[in-house]
Amino acid sequence: MSTDDEDTAFYVGIAAQVTEHRVARGLSQRELAELCGTTQSAIARLESGSRPPKIDTLLRVAAALDCRLEVGFHPRTRAHRSTP
User: Fold this and answer.
1) pTM of the model as a whole
2) Is residue 51 part of a domain?
3) What is the CA radius of gyration of the chain?
4) Which stretches make up the HTH cro/C1-type domain (predicted)?
């Protein structure tokens, strides 16, 4: 998998989690946006997974959804590492 593919999968994964938690709490995109101090269109873009989300936006969304945001670094497999 290329780095671009990994990035896209990451964005889509975040989008799916935001949508899942929003729906589980019975919130519309507009209601979540109000809780986060942003717009409904910003939440729609985040949930589309088409762009890299900003960390500050994710922190506000996580707080509004009563969730913890976790970020981590994981080594790539040897096949993805470049040789020095």
Assistant:
1) 0.83
2) yes
3) 15
4) 18-73
* CATH code for the domain in which residue 59 is found: 1.10.260.40
Cα dist. 71→25, 26, 44, 55, 60 in Å?
A: 23, 26, 22, 10, 15
Sign of the dihedral through C-alpha 47, 53, 57, 60:
positive
Work out the angle at residue 4's Cα, subtended by the Cα atoms of residues 10 and 46, and round it to the nearest 5 degrees: 40
As given in the structure block, the two tokens for residue 34 are 């109000």
**Residue 73 in 3-state DSSP?**
coil
Give me 14's structure tokens.
């975040």
- Is 49 a domain residue? yes
DSSP letter, residue 30: H
Rounded CA-CA distance 39/30 in Å is 7
